[in-house]
Write the structure tokens for this entry.
Amino acid sequence: MNVYDSERMAEALGSEGYIETTKPDDADMILLNTCHIREKAAEKVYSELGRLKSFKASNPDLKIGVAGCVAQAEGAEIMRRQPAVDLVVGPQSYHRLPDMEAKTRKGKKVLDTEFPEEDKFEKLKSRPKGRRAPAAFLTVQEGCDKFCAFCVVPYTRGAEVSRPVQRIIDEARDLVERGVREITLLGQNVNAYHGTGSDGSDYTLAKLIWDLDKVDGLERIRFTTSHPNDMTDELIEAHGSCSKLMPYLHLPVQSGSDKILKRMNRSHTSDSYLKLIERIRRARPDILMSGDFIVGFPEETEEDFQATLDLIEEVNYGYAYSFKYSPRPGTPAAERQQVEIAQANDRLQRLQSLVTHQQKEIQESMVGSTVKVLFEKPGRELGQMMGKSEYLHAVHVADAQIAVGEIAEVKIVEARTNSLAGVFV
Ligand code: SAH
Ligand code: SF4
């Protein structure tokens, strides 16, 4: 979502004449888009700001801004800790960037961490009409009302809000006209999407996907991140019947222990999650599952952790993202008895070696099979092209006479650590 938001911010400032640069010493403004989900990410912001402020010595006109969820959570504290910062902007106020930029040019410090009533996406829609890479993100829903005991998202991104259907369809059509073939619908809880159609009717994510299915030129649809409790029957059914919906699903579970899940306020059990995956696989047998896990949540015992490993064994994940629990100020779990760091480190390592093993086995099992690859860019070797399979595996083909944006059948001949090598069928 931060990638998507950064693009929107670049566009908002583009209307003020800004263009992007990758070199900080070329920049008139440096905006750090930040993540507050774990402490490490938040702390990095301050070390990065310490580094970036030195560019002000050679360019006194340089403005430095902090955007994203650290900006939302810490607000004025950022300017106090790092006085070189001119601008602090929360995720709901990006459409106001041009005004804020003008104020910083007058030497003012600007802080905006409100949750304004107006629709920021509507205000941000003046996109420049350039070509786009074949795979794009599209935010359809933001915020979260679930309040898992470890998570800052409901506080930093605010309550759940869904964008109207027509705006999403218009944005998708615009992306397709500019070369996009694959769209990943984004939301902190994307499958809780509950937008309004142009006739005033209620829309679910499944219904939105079926509307996008009708967009000519759009070949692939994905969505992330989902909550197990919002995987409705019609969404599961869409995985079986909508050919543009790709067979890959990111469905975080966090833990395999019912005691921990309860304390996390997840409102699902390990068994209900496993039954859900069974139903999804019945609808789409080849679907590749991925998940998120937290180890070392307060009061997690060895037995609880073992239950997580058992769940992973049972599901067999194609990808998994795993994190050591990070206490976040203001969330209920931060007040509880913490697990020792050495123990959490040990569990993280054991969990990661299990999922790495599963991932590798799944990749190796792809050898000999044929997948469809959407080619996204040239590879590192001369003549090589890289793309993604339906299952989101990175696939490369040597001496590939194929253009970016094309989809072709590829037979997998080798599984490497982070990618698959293939030849055209
Ligand atoms: N809405 C999604 C998750 C969004 S946050 C869901 O409900 O599953 C992305 C991931 O970050 C989470 O799935 C979780 O695994 C991790 N995460 C969130 N807060 C965390 C914390 N305090 N410590 C460690 N990991 C955390
Ligand atoms: Fe955070 Fe996801 Fe729980 Fe919402 S559902 S509080 S985003 S982990």
